[in-house]
């Protein structure tokens, strides 16, 4: 894109050339336009701007507290309801 920008190629033609070279719908007019605006502003580094969601602000420790409180309770339930396979086998075939 920077090459085409420096040649004076417009956004539509640049988009067309890139898509012809690399495959249909590889780049959109709006993407090329955004890059051209950066180039016009004098920003010629080719790194993408960070985009995405803002930080959630959720504290992992706060999420873990209820799990820790219930851990002893849940492990007790699992211990009383789970029978090791060998003991289960013996109990089944001992009859």
UniProtKB/TrEMBL annotation:
Signal peptide: none annotated. It comes from the Eukaryota. GO terms for biological process: DNA double-strand break processing; DNA integration; double-strand break repair via nonhomologous end joining; mitotic DNA integrity checkpoint signaling; replication fork processing. Residues 1-42 form the Mos1 transposase HTH domain. InterPro entries: Mos1_HTH, Transposase-MT_Hybrid. It holds the Pfam family HTH_48. GO terms for cellular component: condensed chromosome; nucleus; site of double-strand break. GO terms for molecular function: DNA topoisomerase binding; double-stranded DNA binding; histone H3K36 methyltransferase activity; histone H3K4 methyltransferase activity; single-stranded DNA binding; single-stranded DNA endodeoxyribonuclease activity. Gene3D superfamilies: 1.10.10.1450. This is HTH_48 domain-containing protein.
């Amino acid at each position: 894109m920077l090459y085409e920008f420096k040649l004076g190629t417009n956004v539509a033609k640049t988009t067309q050339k890139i898509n012809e070279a690399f495959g249909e719908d590889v780049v959109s007019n709006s993407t090329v336009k955004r890059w051209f605006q950066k180039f016009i502003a004098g920003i010629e580094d080719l790194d993408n701007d960070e985009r995405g969601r803002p930080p959630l602000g959720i504290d992992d420790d706060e999420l873990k507290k209820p799990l820790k409180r219930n851990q002893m309770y849940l492990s007790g339930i699992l211990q009383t309801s789970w029978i090791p396979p060998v003991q289960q086998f013996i109990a089944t075939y001992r009859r």
